Amino acid sequence: MRTYSLFLDIDFQNLQFKGRVLIELESERDVVLNSIGLKVLNSKANGKTFHFEQSGENLEIKTGPFKGTLEVEYAGSIPDLLVGIYRAPYDGTYMVTTQFEAAHARRMLPCVDHPDYKAEFKLTLKINKDLDAISNMPIESVKVEDDKKVVSFQKTPRMSTYLLYLGVGKFEEAKERLGNIDVIFATSTGKARKGQFALEAAKRSLEFYQSYFGISYMLPKVHLITIPEFAAGAMENWGAITFREVALEVDENSSFKTRRRVAEVVAHELAHQWFGNLVTMKWWNDLWLNESFATFMGYKVVDAAYPEWRVWQEFLVSEASGAMARDSLKNTHPIEVDIKSPSEIEQIFDEISYGKGACILRMIEAYLGADDFRKGVDNFLTKHKFSNATGTNLWNSLEEVSGKQVEKIMSEWIEKPGYPVVTAMMSGGKLILRQDRFLLSGEYEKDVWPIPVTMNWDDEFNKLLLETEERAIDIKDVKSLKLNVDHTGFYRVYYKGIYDLVWKSELSAFDRWALIFDALAFLIAGKMPFSEYLSLVERYYSEQDYLPAREVSDQLIFLYLIMPSRFAEISREFHRSQLKILEGKTDENSSILRGIMAGRLAMVDEAYAKELGARFHDYEKVEPDMRGAVAVAYARAFSNFEEIVSRYRKSLSDEERARLLDAMASFKETSLVAMSLGLALSGEVKRQDIGSMILSAATNPDARDLAWTWLKVNIGRLLKLYEGTGRLSRILLSVIPILGIGRVEEVERFFEENRIPEAEKGIEAGIEKLKIYDGLVKNT
Ligand SMILES: [Zn+2]
Predict the structure, then answer these.
(1) 3-state helix vs strand vs coil in the chain, percent to 5
(2) Is residue 744 over pLDDT 80?
(3) pTM of the predicted model, to two decimals?
C-alpha cells in the first residue's frame, strides 16, 4: 500500500455521501478490499473498468496480479451508530464524526482495513459552506465550488486505516502553541474556555513524551475534540483525538475527580501518538502493546505533571484491581490474545489489554530500573517508526539495553492467562515461597511463572526471581516481613500463619492496600475465614491514606450489595469513621474520597441521607466532588423524582447529568427507579450514558429485582444501541454478578436462550463470577 487519495462529497442534511478513492498498491492476485454498507458504483484499475463483487465485508475487484492505481466510486449513508462514520446528536442538531478502531474504516471507504497495511492518506471534502471540518492533518486549501466548498487536507504520514479521522459540523476552537506544534481544543457543544485545563495537560504531556522518547511529535498540529455521543472514553486518531465531554472539558463546576480523569485520558491518548500511531501492532493480538503502554505512560505523565495527586495510588484502584479481578477467573484471556473476527476485537478492549498489560510493564520497569526501561523503549520506537511491531520486538529492545533476560520472563506473562499467588510460610528457620495459579473459585491449579519477587525483611529490601514452584530461603529470627513491595508485581501473597510479621513491617499505602486487596480475594476463594478478614478490616477504620481507605470502602459496599443484612452495619460504621477523618482535609484526593464515601454512606444510613440530601436545594453551592453524593442522598431520603429530572433537563454538562442519572437510579422506591429507566430509553438520555445508569440501578439493593427484569425486556434494544462497540459485553460483565445473586439458574437459562455473540465474553465471565459470589453468600 502506498497512498489513498480520498474524495468525499457530503450531503450533511440528508446524511448521505458520495466517495471516490484512488489507491496506489501492488497485489499478486485479484484485489480484495474491505467495505461495509457502501454501495460500490464502479471500479477501475489503471483507468480501465474491472468487474467487482461485494460479499460480506469484502469487495473483490477482478484485476488479477496488479500494480498501479485502483479507483473505486461509491455511495454511503451516515447512520445512527457509534462506529464508522456516524451522526452524533446534540442540542437539536448534530455533527458528523468517525470512530474507526478497530475495524470500521471500511464503513467510510473501501480499504485494506488491517493495521499492518499502512499508507499515506490525502483527504478532500466537499461540504456546505457554513460547516467546518477537522481531519488528522491541517487544511491545505479551501475553494468555493457552486454552493459548497472543497476542503483539502495535507497528506498524512504513513499510518494504519483505524487512525484516520473526519469531523464535520460547527466547531469552536481554542488554540495554543508548543514549539512548532499547534495544540487545539475543539468543541461543538461547550465554550472554548472549557478546554483550558485539557490544553495545559496536553502541553505538559507532549513535553514529557518528546523528552522521554527522544522523538519529536510528528505532525504540525493536534486537535482535542469533544464528541457529544461517543462509545469509548477517547480515541487516539493521529493528530485529531476524540473524547467524551467528561474526559476533556473542565470548568468551575468540575470535580477534582473529573480533572484527574481529563489529565489522565489526555496523557493516555497522547502516548498513543508514539505508541500505536508511530509504531503500530502488527495485528490485533498485540492490542495490548498499544493500550498497556498508553495506560502505563498516562499515569507516569500525570504523576510527573501533578505530583500532589499521587496518581500511582489511583493506578492500583483503577487498573490493577480490575485486571487482577478479571484475571482470577477461568474466563480470562492471555494479554496476547488470539483474534479472528472483528466482534472479538471489540471485546478485548478490556481490563486485561489495558490494566494487566500496564501492570506487567510496571513490573518489568521495577525489575530493569527506570532508566534502562526508558532506553529500551526509545530504542524500540526508533527502530520501528512508521511501521509495525510485536511484543517480541519490544522485549528484544529491552534486552539489548539492559543485558538482562526479558523475553524469557515476559513471554510467560504475556502468553499465559491468569497469575500466581505466592504462599509465604516459615518452616525450620527458612522462609518457604510456593506458587500456584490464583483462581477466585478457590480451585487449585498447578502452574509456574517467573516472578520478580521483591521483599522487605527486617525492613531491608531484597529481590529474587522465583522460577520454580517452591523455594526455601535461609532467614533466621526474622522480625518483620513484607513481599511484593509497593505491589509492583502482578501476583498476590498469602502469608500462611505469619500475618503478625507483616504488620510489624514498615508498610506503605500501597502495601496496606495490597494486604486488604488480597484478603478479600482469599475470603471469596475460601482461603481466609470470615473472622480473619473482618479483623483485618478493623485495622483500616482509622486509615489516613486515600488508597487503602478507598479499597476498604469498595469492598464493604460490594459485600453489602451481595449480603445487605450482614454488611449494612459494618459499612455504616466504617464510612462514618472515615468521613470524620476526612473532615477538614482539603487536598484533592481527600475531596474525591469524601464524595465517594458520602454517597455510599447515604445508601446505607437513612439519617445521614436526610441530612446530606437537604443540601440539594442549595445544589450550586455544593462543592463539585460532593454533588453526586448530595443528589443520591436527596433521592434516597426525599424520593422526589420530578425535582431531580427537572435539574437534569436544565444541566449544561455531561458531568452534571451523570451525577443526576446516578441519583435517579438510586431511589429507594422501585417505582421511581422504573420511571428513571424508562427515561433512559426515551431518547432524553445520551446513549453513551445509558450503560452507567444500568450499573447504578444494579448496585441499588432496592432495585435489584427491577433492574434484572428491565434488562431481560430491553436487552435487544441495548444491543442495537451499542452495536459494533463491544460496550454491551462490558456492561453485562459488571451487572450479571450482582443482579444474578439468588437466581443463578434463571440467569444462565436466559443467556442460553438469548444468545448475544457480540457480548459472549462478558456474559461468560459475568456468569462465572456470579456463581462464585452466589456460593459465598450461601456459605456465610
Ligand atoms: Zn488507548
Answers:
(1) 50, 25, 30
(2) yes
(3) 0.94
